[in-house]
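Hi R.,

Here's the chain you asked about this morning:
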Amino acid sequence: MNAQIESSDAIYADTSALVRAYLGTEEGSPAMRELLLGGTSTVVTSELTRIEFAGAVVRAERARRVSSAAAALRSFDRHCRKEGPVSLIAFARDPVVSDAARLSATYGLTAMDAIHVAVALHVSRREGSGVVRFITRDADQSAAASAEGLATN
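And here is the predicted structure, written out as tokens:
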């Protein structure tokens, strides 16, 4: 997991945004790939994204939207190495889980959507600057992140 985060230029990408970046088969994929993988911003996401990402690309392969889930997973894993463009964030259970529960109760988010917002909030607080841009394809999740003070899409 990558350790250094330049939060003044950080983007938190949830799984839906990362899947769009890696699977070039959906509308907006090239722009999302450029934003998340081709720019100079540090991209961070929860360590749980790896699990969601795996399921999403296998489902995409079954639906014939991608030719090889294994290739997409290898590419994602390679990008999550120390010098790669994506940093997987291990989260401290206590603040993230309690924040996620609060977010679910307040905004009606699913567990994983709430965890993504909670991890982004944790990164923002930990880095001290509070500047983390939250990228997602989910309107409800984006609205919750915005209401919690994160810049969004």
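One quick note: DSSP finds seven helices and five strands in the chain.

Cheers,
M.
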